[in-house]
Structures are given as structure tokens and as C-alpha cells.
Amino acid sequence: MTFPTPSSLVFRQLFESESSTFTYLIADRTHPNEAVLIDPVDSTVERDAKLIKELGLGLKFGLNTHCHADHITGTNLLRAKFPSMKSAISENAGSKADVLLKDNQTIEVGQFVLECRATPGHTDGCMSFLLKDQQQNPLAVFTGDALLIRGCGRTDFQQGSAASLYNSVHTRLFSLPDNVSVYPAHDYRGFTSSTIGEEKVHNPRLSKSADEFKTIMDNLNLPKPKLIDVAVPANINCGVH
Amino acid sequence: MTFPTPSSLVFRQLFESESSTFTYLIADRTHPNEAVLIDPVDSTVERDAKLIKELGLGLKFGLNTHCHADHITGTNLLRAKFPSMKSAISENAGSKADVLLKDNQTIEVGQFVLECRATPGHTDGCMSFLLKDQQQNPLAVFTGDALLIRGCGRTDFQQGSAASLYNSVHTRLFSLPDNVSVYPAHDYRGFTSSTIGEEKVHNPRLSKSADEFKTIMDNLNLPKPKLIDVAVPANINCGVH
Ligand SMILES: [Fe+2]
Ligand SMILES: [Fe+2]
Questions:
Q1: A11–B2: do the CB atoms touch at under 8 Å?
Q2: Alpha carbon A88 to chain centroid distance?
Q3: Residue B16's beta-bridge partner residues?
Q4: What residue in A sits closest to B188 (Cα-Cα)?
Q5: Bridge partners of A37?
């Protein structure tokens, strides 16, 4: 991590290597039962639940940045371990969840806040979460597949739109202060974090014009994700499959 | 990361997935040419050098926590990209390097300090690096293979000694404040950081007595690392092979 961490903040980045997914644990030691887990993966729920318990925390929310096509969300399995936990996802994701999140809504994590920022384009229902401290200073943003480190999510299925993604990143993420840390849902090259300032300058796709971005995205020719036919139907139903 | 990061600190954790090795970049924005890279891997030198240049930094030291048996150090390749960089390793590692580090020696990273703490046991020449801020507050410790997250390095080759490792961890690492972040050289389960307080309580090996620890370590029956016959001879010579 690269942001100034207030002393009561608990922050952990966790990695699931099959789908190269990052899961993030965020909590406030002064309100230990309000921990939030962003993008849990079904296969690492045991690991994550053990860690949460070892840290003396209780889970308030299991958040998904979007309806994933490459892995099954862990929110359903987590509910069995943390009965008061609620799953949450954007109201535009087309998925079932205990809480459907609206743009600009805030989620309290003890004294900290996660501000929901709709960032559609990879899917219609992609949402980023901006972590702010007690004084409302932005610290870090969890960008899902909207903004990856020196990359971005694909826009060729699941309602993907390069124009929409470009607009989302430029208006809702690149408008943040340069020193805000960036924590994506995936990385495939061993990076673990970046900053808004760095991505504005060095992101090889999103630092370009909207037209150039569209050309790049239209010519990626990526294979279909291995798990899409299993993962999307399951994730629409909170990971139940 | 989970420690309070001073505003001028640059900190990046990088991952090499073949050997599950973490590389750490540490710098002070106010002294950009004094960046340090801990445990670089040969196969990710291009990635790391590009990042260092994008961040406007210059490399002062390439540090190795020990003579690795599972990957080839990147220090030799990095010297070609950063001609003023010096490689460094413990004087007890039995390896060539530009600087041979002594126990308790300090390395300045701009206004920050890395304090060398000899932590033998996995190998004779294992050294941990304690990052301190301008006020000498300990922030994080880079533990190499001495202390892993809920684990530790093996002690069955390369001068390994369970008794020595137990003593190192308990006297030189567990003596640090509980809130100091722990950043190891490897993780195989998707964890990225821990804290001293957590490992003292939850490390399944090192939270035990010295006798129980030795019994655990004597019965691991691990296979020989795939790369040991290539990596150790190369790493003794700063990664030249
Ligand atoms: Fe996705
Ligand atoms: Fe090692």
C-alpha cells in the first residue's frame, strides 16, 4: 500500500492466483464489527474468514465491484460464516444482493467511508469504491476492472463499451487527486498498487484520446474467459451455483 | 500495506509468480535517486526498471535478504540499467556483492532508514531490513525467508538451523512493536502482509516453544527447490550465470 494509513485502519490486500483476483479487507479497529471485504473469491473464502477472525473482526459487507466473468464471488459462502454480513453490488449490475448500491452512496466502515462511484464500461454495473478517512480525505480507490494498473478491463462482452469506460475513468477516477492509491480487481504482471497520477500519465490505454482508446479496445482480440459460462450465472445470484 | 506511510515515502510491493517472490521498492520522493529494491528477481528486472523510471526514481541499492535457492537475483541485470546502483547482501551470505552488510548497519533511503538485522537460521547470511521514518519510528520489516506470513523459511539445507531461526525471529523480530508491518520474501497463499503482533500469536510454527518449533521443522519433508542447483551458484556471484 502506498497511502498514509490512519492508525486505526486495518487494510489487507489478498490474492487469488487462479483468476489473478485481488480481494481487499478494510476495517476500523475502533469499530471491529464493521469490516468490509471487496471482491471475495469463492475458493479463498476459508482463508479470508480465518484471517478476519484472527484479526478480531466481524464482517458487515461483502462488496462486489461488478458481476465477474472470471471467478465466482465468495459472498454467498461468506454469509454462512458471518451471518450478519450483507452482500452488495451496484443496482445496475443485474445481480441479486442484499443491498443494491446507488451511485454516490456511502458505506461506513467505522469512522472511515467508502464512497460508491459508478464506473460503467467494462460492464453496465461496475462500481468503484473510494476510501476516505475521518476528515473525508480520499486515500485509495478500489477500481474493479474499470482501471487496472497500466491497463483496464475488456469491453467486448457483458454490455462492454469502450466509450463508456473511457468516460467513467476520466470523469470519476482521473478527477481524483494524483496521490490517491489505485487498487484494482486484478493484476496479471505482479503489480499490487498504483496511483491516480501515475495512471493518468503511464496507462498505455487510458492516457490516450477517447478515439485512440476505442481503437485499442476494438483490436484486443482476447479469448473468452474460461469460467464465464459458470461464473456469470452464479454471480447474478450472489455466487449461488 | 498497513503502516502509516509518510507522505514522501514511495513504497511498492511487486510479485514474481514463478517463485512466488516479493520484490519491494522503497524510496523518498525528496531524494529520488536513493531508491532501494529488495530481492529483485532476474525475470522481472525489465518490469521493475520501467516502473522505477516511470516514478522518476534512480536506484541506489539492490539488496538481497539472503542467497536465494529458488530464483536468480536481479541485481546483476539491474546494474546494467542503473550503473550507479550497488548490490548488497549480508557479509555472512558467502556471496559476492558491491557492499557486504553488517548486523545493525543502516542504509539511508533519503530521509528514511533501513536498519540491517541479522536473522540467520534459514541460511547463515539471512538479513532482515527494518524501515524507519525520519523520527526513527519503525514502520515495516522486510523479513526475507526468516519470517513468512503464518510460516517461515525451511531450515533443512544451506546451513539451515531451526534453533538459530527460532532465536533470530524471537530476539530480532518479535521484539519489535506489535504494529510493525511484516513483508516477507515469499507468500504461497495470496497474503501480502502481516504484522509482528499477528505473527507472535497466529504463526503456527513460531508461536510455539523452541522445542516444538524444532520438531515441526524436522518433519516438513519438503522437496528440493527446482532451481537450487542453478540459483545458488548464480546468486553467490550476484546473479551472474
Ligand atoms: Fe470483470
Ligand atoms: Fe530462501
A1: yes
A2: 12
A3: B21
A4: A17
A5: A25, A62
Q: What is the average pLDDT score of chain B?
A: 95
In terms of Cβ atoms closer than 10 Å to its own Cβ (0-12, 13-18, 19+), residue B44 is: buried
Residue A2: pLDDT above 80? Answer: no
Q: How is A169-236 classified by DSSP, letter by letter? A: IIIIITTS-TT-EEEESB-SSSB--EEHHHHHHH-TTTTS-HHHHHHHHHT--PPPPTTHHHHHHHHH
Q: Which three cell numbers stand for residue B112?
A: 528514511
Count of other CB atoms within 10 angstroms of residue B218: 11
Cell 518433519 belongs to B219
Domain CATH code at residue A70: 3.60.15.10
**Sign of the alpha-carbon dihedral angle for A45, A50, A52, A58:** positive
B3/A4 Cβ within 8 A = no
CB contact under 8 A, B54 and A7: no
B1 pLDDT exceeds 50?
no
Radius of gyration of chain A (CA): 17
- Residue A94 belongs to a domain: yes
Over residues A167-176, mean pLDDT: 98
Q: Is residue B2 part of a domain?
A: no
Residue type at position B29: R
**How many of the other CB atoms lie within 10 Å of CB of A99?**
15
Could you tell me the distance, in angstroms and rounded to a whole number, from the CA of residue A118 to the centre of ligand 1? 14
Q: Do B202 and A54 touch (CB under 8 A)?
A: yes
> Containing domain of residue B51, as a range?
9-236
In contact, B30 and B133? CB cutoff 8 Å? no
Q: What angle do CA A149, A153, A154 make, to 5 degrees?
A: 140
Note the pLDDT of residue B3: 67
Mutate to test the interface with A, among B189, B196, B200, B203 (most CBs of A within 10 A): B189
Q: What is the radius of gyration, based on Cα positions, of chain B?
A: 17
Residue in the block written with cell 524510496: B27
Q: How many domains, in total, are found in chain A?
A: 1
Read off the C-alpha cell for B138: 519503525
| A65 located within any domain | yes
Hey, CA dihedral for A180, A6, A129, A137, is it positive or negative? negative
Q: Complex ipTM, two decimals?
A: 0.95
Residue B4 included in any domain: no
Q: Which helix (H) or strand (E) holds A115?
A: strand A112-118
